[in-house]
Structures are given as C-alpha cells and as structure tokens.
C-alpha cells in the first residue's frame, strides 16, 4: 500500500503535523494518550513526557477523546472549555482496516495570543450579532397594552371593550379612524392580548412603501428574481410574521394590483415569493387600519369589494378626539407623564385656562396633534405650569367663546375658522380658509409637509402648489 508519506523523512513528520494542526492529541481505544504535541502541552501547563501514556481525562479537562475512541462518532467544531477559555475542537475516530483503533483531536489556535486575537474578533462579531438580534426581536414585539390606552368616555370605553373582547380570536380586524386617533396603539394592544402575543408583530405602512417595492416587502423574492435583488433572496414580512400578527397600516392606500395579491394570501393562506414557483404556507392574523372611507372607495372602484369583506370581519371604529372631549384632560396628563420622561422634567402641570382651551379645540390631528402641542409647550416652558402663552399661535388665537365651541362641536369643523364679520367675496374667504388650514396642518405636524398633506387629504403636488400660492414656506 502506498502511504504517500514514505518519501518524507521521518524526522519531518512531527513538524508537518504541528504545522497542520495547532494542538493535537492522539489516544488509543482506551483513551490513553499516544501522542500530544508541545503546543498543546504548553497550553495545558504540562510537558509531553508527563502527558504521554496517561488517560486523556487526567491531562485535558472536559475532554471527550476517550468517548470518540469508543463510539467512532466524529465531533466537528465543538466548543471545548479549557483553562477558562472556550476553544474550538475537532475530534475524529481513527479507523484502521475497518476497525476503530483510537481517536485524533485537534484544538484550534497555536498560542494564547492568537486565541485572544480571535476571541476579540469573534466577541465583537457576537456582540454585534446579539445587538441586531435583540433589536429585531424588539422591533417584532408589540409595545402597547390596553391599559396604556387612555380614555374614560363612554364611546372610548365601548371601543376598548370591543377590541379587548375580539383580541383572543383569529379573525381579521379592520381599524377605522382619523389620523392620530390611536389605530396603531389598538393594533398593538389587540396582538398583545391574543394567544399570539409572544410571536412576531410586524407593521407595514402601505402608504410609505413605493408601489414597486410593496410586493417584495410583503412576500419576499427568490435569488436573482430581478436586477438588484439581494443574493440568496429575501424573506417577505408575511413570512417574518408567521404565527403572529401583521398590521397593515393605511390599507386604503394599497394599490389595486397589490390588493388582489393580498386577497389571494388571505384566501389561500400561502404566499409566493417573487420569482418563486412554490407556495409557502403562512399563518398570520391580519389587522388592517385606515383613515379613509373604504366603503366609498369600494363604490368608486378604488378598493376591491371582496378584500374589503375579508378584512372587515371585525370592524372597530376609533372615535376622534373631538367626539370624546371629556377625555382631553386625562389624555393630556398621560401624555405629559410620557413627555416628562422623554425630556427629563418633573411636576409639569396645565393651567386651567389651558385645559379649557384644549377642550375648545376640535383636534383634526387628534391625539398626535395634542401630543405635539404639549411637546412644544414643554420645550418653551421655563417653570412648571403650562399656560396659554406656551401654546402654538393657532390655539392661543382661539376665543374662549362657549357658543362658538358648541357650534363647532356640532359641525365637527375646526374652531379656528370663525365666521367673517363682514361679507367678503367667496373666493377670498375660501382662500383664507385654505391658507389657515394649511398653516394649522403644518403646525400640527411640526412642519412635516408630507404629513400635513395627508392630514388635509390632498396630494403632495397640490399641497406644494397651494403653499406656493399662499406664500407659505
Ligand atoms: N388612547 C390613547 N392614549 C394615549 N395615547 C394615545 C392614545 N391614542 C393615541 N395615542 C398616542 O397618539 C399618537 C398617535 O397614535 P397612533 O399612531 O396609534 O395613531 P393612528 O391612528 O395610527 O395614526 P395614523 O393614521 O396617522 O397612522 C401616538 O403617539 C400614541 O401614543
């Protein structure tokens, strides 16, 4: 038999072995050490002479070499704690003429310095990996519970009760409500109160993802599905949310073509990645939300009727703030507490005038607007009491006129729009109203134009044109 080593002088063998493996040990069937190299002995704090012919368990802590020599089962890249460090070991049975005669073990890293270098590198990578793992897990967890939803008004309590009652089952939920009423909070709370609470909660904002990316975001794609596709493909959010809940925010903004694909997933309970052939089964509870009038959109052919019925199994309408004004003081206090935490402040209060003024406004931006108003007030506040002077102009300008409050409440119109004292040309009045509404929306959204356009329910282009027309920067 040609061993292939005959040409190599015998005294070279050991150096070759040492160069091939940093630390090496060979045992016989009984686990007695037949060979161990100097590097390994140095690391163990012993010498070759002392180690040879001794049971391997007496020389190497936590060894499994004697077990491999019996079972014949190799172990690759096993973590092996030695001297307080975790080494990486490979263990192979030695088989000669079909019989196990012993075992060979190697431990990576030539010297402690090399190990330390690797360890630092690996530790950094492991820490980074851990950071992203926790972040992903956190992002996939729902954050709010029903007890975080503030409000004691009968309408709000009834809504909350309904949501609590239906959270346990698996039916689709459709959350309807104006912008900033708390639809996302409700979605979180429903998931948290369900059997799926420990499983992923994935949020997709259908309005903020460009139409051409929405399909790959929802369903994923296979390797090479299109130019620019990530190597190895990508999981879609439906797969990420498997066994949990997916929250489809702004569902009314989902393009019609995508609506058909979503409907298919809801019916078949399976997805197909872009460029893929096979169907992948998914079990996901759907919670959808919109501030749009979906029924009207169905009539206008902008939203698929069949999808609407599928989503509308349980419909929860979240009341706007102006329809539960009695909740304003309580919500304001809750929001103040939250903001105090964010801004490291304590003991901030609202003056009674401010409370009255807050109750008077019609809050087109709902709780989000209220939160922005309070955040701005805290920012300009020196002492502890928020007074009228700390409110934005559009709220300061409101008159504490009860008749006006009653009127505006009845009609659900912003109370800043006061009837003109003198009759003016309709065109001028409309332009003023339009300009005021834009300024108010910008105020509510802290100058965010996209959000402001959304609040006003007009397109971005039209919004920019109007801003230009009225000289609003
Ligand atoms: N009942 C509530 N109690 C306390 N805070 C609330 C409540 N409802 C909403 N909020 C707060 O108001 C803000 C807006 O809520 P959320 O994002 O859930 O509204 P939304 O209806 O989903 O808005 P949009 O339609 O614009 O996405 C959040 O900061 C949220 O914490």
From TrEMBL:
A Pfam family hit: AAA_lid_14
Name the Gene Ontology molecular function terms of this record.
Answer: ATP binding; sequence-specific DNA binding
**Residues covered by the Sigma-54 factor interaction domain:** 149-379
Query: Which GO biological process categories is it annotated with?
Result: regulation of DNA-templated transcription
SUPFAM superfamilies named among the record's database cross-references: Homeodomain-like (SSF46689), P-loop containing nucleoside triphosphate hydrolases (SSF52540), PYP-like sensor domain (PAS domain) (SSF55785)
Keyword DNA damage among UniProt keywords: no
Against Gene3D superfamilies, the record matches this protein to:
1.10.8.60, Homeodomain-like, P-loop containing nucleotide triphosphate hydrolases, PAS domain
The UniProt keyword set, sorted, is:
ATP-binding, DNA-binding, Nucleotide-binding, Transcription, Transcription regulation
InterPro entries to which the protein is assigned, alphabetical: AAA+_ATPase, AAA_lid_NorR, Homeodomain-like_sf, HTH_Fis, P-loop_NTPase, PAS, PAS-like_dom_sf, PAS_fold
PAS domain segment(s) = 14-54
Q: Spell out the protein name for this chain.
A: Sigma 54-interacting transcriptional regulator
């Amino acid at each position: 038999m040609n061993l292939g080593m005959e040409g190599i002088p015998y005294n070279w063998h050991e150096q070759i072995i040492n160069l091939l493996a940093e630390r090496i040990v060979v045992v016989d069937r009984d686990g007695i050490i037949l060979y161990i190299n100097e590097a390994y002995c140095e690391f163990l704090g012993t010498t070759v002479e002392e180690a040879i012919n001794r049971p391997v368990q007496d020389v190497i802590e936590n060894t499994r070499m004697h077990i491999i020599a019996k079972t014949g089962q190799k172990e690759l890249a096993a973590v092996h704690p030695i001297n307080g460090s975790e080494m990486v070991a490979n263990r192979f049975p030695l088989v000669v003429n079909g019989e196990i005669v012993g075992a060979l073990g190697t431990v990576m890293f030539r010297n402690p310095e090399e190990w330390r270098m690797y360890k630092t590198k690996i530790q950094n990578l492991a820490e980074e990996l851990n950071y992203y793992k926790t972040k992903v897990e956190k992002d996939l967890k729902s954050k709010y519970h029903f007890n975080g939803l503030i409000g004691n008004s009968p309408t709000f309590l009834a809504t909350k009760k309904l949501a609590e009652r239906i959270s346990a089952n698996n039916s689709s939920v459709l959350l309807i409500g104006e912008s900033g009423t708390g639809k996302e909070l409700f979605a979180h709370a429903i998931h948290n109160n369900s059997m799926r609470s420990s499983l992923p909660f994935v949020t997709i904002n259908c309005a903020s993802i460009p139409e051409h990316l929405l399909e790959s975001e929802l369903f994923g794609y296979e390797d090479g599905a299109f130019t620019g596709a990530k190597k190895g493909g990508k999981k879609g959010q439906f797969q990420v949310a498997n066994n949990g809940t997916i929250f489809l925010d702004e569902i009314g903004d989902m393009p019609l073509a995508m609506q058909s694909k979503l409907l298919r997933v809801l019916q078949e309970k399976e997805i197909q990645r872009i460029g893929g052939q096979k169907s992948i089964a998914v079990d996901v509870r759907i919670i959808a939300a919109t501030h749009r009038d979906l029924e009207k959109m169905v009539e206008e052919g902008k939203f698929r009727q069949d999808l609407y019925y599928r989503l509308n199994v349980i419909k929860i309408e979240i009341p706007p703030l102006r329809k539960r004004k009695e909740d304003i003081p309580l919500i304001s206090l809750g929001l103040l507490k939250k903001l105090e935490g964010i801004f490291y402040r304590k003991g901030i209060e609202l003056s009674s005038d401010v409370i009255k003024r807050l109750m008077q406004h019609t809050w087109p931006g709902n709780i989000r607007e209220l939160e922005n108003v309070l955040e701005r007030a805290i920012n300009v506040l020196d002492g502890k009491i928020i007074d009228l002077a700390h409110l934005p102009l559009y709220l300061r300008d409101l008159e504490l006129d009860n008749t006006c409050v009653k009127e505006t409440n009845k009609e659900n119109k912003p109370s800043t729009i006061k009837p003109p004292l003198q009759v003016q040309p309709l065109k001028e009045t409309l332009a003023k109203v339009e300009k005021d509404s834009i300024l108010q929306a910008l105020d509510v959204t802290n100058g965010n134009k996209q959000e402001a356009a959304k609040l006003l329910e007009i397109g971005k282009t039209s919004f920019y044109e109007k801003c230009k027309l009225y000289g609003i920067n």
